Amino acid sequence: MTTTIPGLTGQTTTEDADLIVLQNTAANRTRSITVANFRNELAADMDIVTTAELNLAMVNVTAAYQAADNALKELLFPVGTKVSVSSGVLATTNPSVAWGFGTWVKEEGKYYVGHKTGDTNFGTIGASIGSVSHNHGANTGSTTLNTTQIPSHAHSYKDTFHTESRFVSSGALGENETSEFRAPGVFAGIGTNGSDYDNDVFYYKNRTTNTTGDTQGHSHSINNDNHLPPSIVEVVWRRTA
Question: What is the pTM assigned to this prediction?
Answer without folding.
Answer: 0.45
